[in-house]
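// run 5 | inverse folding | seed 20
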């Protein structure tokens, strides 16, 4: 079994920054691709970013490119978020072990989420 624990959410003014962290534990010997989804109030879960176990070539959804930076150190995942906007307000979920298309929601493991609130 795999456990994913997110931290780093909070309340920030528009234009500010936050860094989310996800720690993976359990049967992560061959930790595959990890990533983040988010779910805003009243909306469906949305893919944010993903990265392979080499920690290179992260993949982002268009709305966060140039503002978010995804990095990884073994089983710990980081999402540096800058120039935050009110529309970034959501619960952010750490995910591991993707489906055939990383932007689909069929990832095998999900964390419980951490709330990010951006006010204008």
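// decoded
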């Amino acid at each position: 079994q795999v456990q994913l624990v997110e931290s780093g959410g909070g309340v920030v003014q528009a234009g500010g920054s936050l860094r989310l962290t996800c720690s993976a534990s359990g049967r992560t010997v061959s930790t595959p691709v990890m990533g983040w989804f988010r779910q805003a109030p009243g909306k469906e879960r949305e893919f944010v970013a993903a990265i392979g176990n080499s920690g290179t070539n992260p993949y982002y959804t268009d709305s966060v490119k140039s503002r978010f930076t995804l990095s990884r150190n073994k089983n710990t995942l980081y999402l540096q978020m800058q120039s935050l906007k009110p529309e970034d307000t959501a619960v952010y979920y750490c995910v591991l072990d993707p489906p055939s298309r990383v932007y689909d929601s069929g990832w095998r493991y999900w964390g419980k989420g951490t709330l990010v609130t951006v006010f204008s």
